[in-house]
Amino acid sequence: MRREVCICSDIPRLSTETRLVLLAARRELQVPTNTGRLAAQALTHSVMLTRGARDVPLDLAEYLPAGCRPLILYPADDAIELSPAMREGGPYTLVVPDGNWRQTSKMRRREPLLQGIQAVTLPPGPETQYLVRRETKAQGLATIEAIARALGILEGEWVQRELERIFALMVQRTLAGRGQVSDRQCHHRC
What is the DSSP letter of 126? Predict the structure, then answer.
């Protein structure tokens, strides 16, 4: 982001029991509107790994510590829906693929360790607030929105609110930096 719209000083530092492993597609990291990176910066128990980096093998095992039940946030056929009742089964390591639908669909198939991790999905919720990029799926969310909602279920509403707050600020300033105001923003002000 340009300096006048930068949000770096506004990013909260959130400590959760749930660990986040953000598994980013190599190409996604080059996208300036990537939101997964923003979530990883805000969450103290997080790591961001690159999937598909040349000559850099991916070793997920070291990021899946014993004593933390691993879950992968992905709408696979065998996925179960996250629920507040799952808080009792933690702590968790939440693995979140970050990329477009095509990139993330390949990750679970190509990473043997991911195949053995229980897939989870989010319950139906509000539509995405990501006005910066187009969403191709009806219930598609920005990565930070999906992480916020998942942690809202596993940790509590406070973490969801904080991640959604910094996400909204990022969207607002990105659009402002482009000289745009969304219809949704206009309705809130008018």
Answer: P
CATH for 14-189, options being 3.30.70, 3.30.2450, 3.40.1280, 2.60.40: 3.40.1280
- What are the Cα distances from residue 124, in Å, to 63, 83, 150, 162, 171? 29, 12, 12, 20, 22
Query: How wide is the angle at C-alpha 153 spanned by C-alphas 149 and 159, nearest 5°?
Result: 65
* Boundaries of every domain in the chain: 14-189
- Which of 92, 90, 57 lies closest to 73, judged by CA? 92
Instruction: Name the nearest CA neighbour of 105 among 3, 23, 189.
Output: 23
| Residues 132 and 87: beta-carbon distance below 8 Å | no
**Largest Cα–Cα separation, the chain:** 53
* Beta carbons of 40 and 13 less than 8 angstroms apart: no
pTM comes to 0.86
For the ranges 27-36, 42-51, 85-94, 161-170, which has the lowest average pLDDT?
27-36
Contact 108, 76 (CB under 8 A): yes
> Would you give the distance in Å from CA 97 to the centre of its chain?
8
Average pLDDT over residues 8-35: 86
Q: Are 24 and 102 in contact (CB under 8 A)?
A: no
Judged by phi (left if over 0) then psi (alpha if -120 to 50, else beta), residue 51 lies in: beta
